[in-house]
Amino acid sequence: MTITNGQAAALVPAATPAAAAGPEHVEQPVAYDAIILAGFGGPEGQDDVIPFLRNVTRGRGIPDERLEEVAHHYRHFGGVSPINQQNRELKAALEAELAARGIELPVVWGNRNWSPYLAEAVREAHDRGFRTLIGLATSAYSSFSSCRQYREDFALALDETGLGDELRIDKVRQFFDHPGFVTPFVEGVRDALAELVERGFADDEIRVLFATHSIPTDDALRSGNRAVDYGAGGAYAAQHLAVGEVVMREVASHVAWELVYQSRSGPPSQPWLEPDVNDVIAGLPEQGVKAVVIVPLGFVSDHMEVLWDLDTEATETAEENGMVAIRTPTPGTHPAYVAGLVDLVLERVDGTPTAERPALTELGPWYDVCRPGCCENVRAGFKPAIAGIAP
């Protein structure tokens, strides 16, 4: 793709000059005009639920009758997903953190699947005179749905608004092992274990379950840098396992733990990552487990997959099997998380050397510019995307 506005032919579409050639880490300072916060989006009333789910599943030909099977999760909560309000709160927290540090970077917010859409955010940024943006997606890990699709959404927003020749958009690195993201989980697990010990449970009677959204096995295998073998489950599983190890090491616990998956939505014939959280919980009593700590490691806030799949279904499964269950908090607007997100932006503003960037696992610090073919969707193929070397 050829970048206009005086830039030469570039490997990375819509990038700033510092990122256009595709370095793994950008170590040149960039004067950004604003942050563009990218969320998943969610319905805000009963009438919004089916239209929202059509947006989420667009291109897959799923009839409304099947969508209604998922809609009851939202209808249970009045048709309102908490995710939009959580993003409003995160935006406000980011603005407060930036102001406290004396950093003049406005925050513009847009969603993938519900208003305000990313195209609206891109248009707003342009109307306010911003031309060089740094993208911040509310997702920490590498996979199609948690990284590449956001990069495609940014590219689509530029195309829909016709602003691809006027705006440059970079994106912060995936932050699964950044201290700001990990710290809230460490605190949550430490507090939960302390509570259970105080209630008389022995270490071998407790199991910590790190839960994340399941994805198709094919997508998992294609997550991350295609030139690296991350093992079964690709970079997506490897990143979660590495963070789980960090958390348990930090709490200095001898309690057993494992990575589990939730919220699968594909047809039974399509392999998805396993084991399912409910299946694991149901099998724990025969291992002598009497209490379970459920850690929503794959999520940045308490949205529907946390409120329904963990707080409702998984907790009920534990109770039905005679176990005590504690679900630990997500980062939300935890001060360490908010400060960490600002730090990630400043890495790019300042051109921080790679060796000086914090990362709690050997997998990081992750790439600023995604590698070729990263996080391919085998069903839909490659689409234009920012912040990565094509395809």
UniProtKB/TrEMBL annotation:
Keywords for the protein's UniProt record, in alphabetical order: Cytoplasm, Heme biosynthesis, Iron, Lyase, Metal-binding, Porphyrin biosynthesis
Binding site for Fe-coproporphyrin III: S81, Y150
Subcellular location as annotated: Cytoplasm
The UniProt record lists the keyword Lyase: yes
Catalytic activity, EC: 4.99.1.9
Family: Belongs to the ferrochelatase family.
Enzyme class: lyase
Residues where Fe(2+) binds: H213, E305
Pathway: Porphyrin-containing compound metabolism; protoheme biosynthesis
Chief location: cytoplasm
Reactions it catalyzes: Fe-coproporphyrin III + 2 H(+) = coproporphyrin III + Fe(2+)
Classification via InterPro entries: Ferrochelatase (IPR001015), Ferrochelatase_C (IPR033644), Ferrochelatase_N (IPR033659)
Reported function: Involved in coproporphyrin-dependent heme b biosynthesis. Catalyzes the insertion of ferrous iron into coproporphyrin III to form Fe-coproporphyrin III.
GO molecular function: lyase activity
Name recorded for this polypeptide: Coproporphyrin III ferrochelatase
